[in-house]
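Many introductory courses stop at the sequence. We go one step further.
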Amino acid sequence: MRKINTQIFVMLLLSVASMHSFAAQSAPYVGVQLGVNAGGDWRLTNPIGVRTQFGMTGENLGILGGYGALFRERFYLGGEGFFNINAIRTSNKVIDTVGTTVKMRSSYSYGLGAMPGVKITPDTLLYGRIGVVRTQFELSQTPIFSATSKTTNTATGGQLGVGMALSLGKDLDLRGEYVYSQYQSFTACGNKISPYTYQLVASFAYKFV
């Protein structure tokens, strides 16, 4: 019986050691992600100074790729790029007394980020995100009794986020992340647009180990 208990104990130790091993792997990876808008606004100021806040709804689906490495056993540093197809849009708004209506939507985005973190258990990583994002915005404006005008702009923004990654095996991670993006203002159809967003993002990453 003592021999059997010793074998079980050794097997448990080997199991824990293997968890440390796969969680500590430094490797390139690729993955898929799904994001949902949790808040934010596209602030619009029209040519006569009327300001309107645009609430946003929608999702995005994308791919990602990067490289991450652990050092001193528990500290992490990674770099990542991504590309998303967006289905994010605003509700219609009347922004002035003459009945002008504006619609806005986002069709795609891409970016790069640095991801410092710390391993809090053998198979769990807490990390942050600092990065840059480029997003295409399309605005359509319809004054009353006039034709609709449209314009497309690609705006640059900064990103800050916090997330957690869980190792599901030697080569697969499940991640959840909260990301804030603040964009530079731009002009569309004579309006000044100042977008910012909050997103919840879930992703799977496959590591080449």
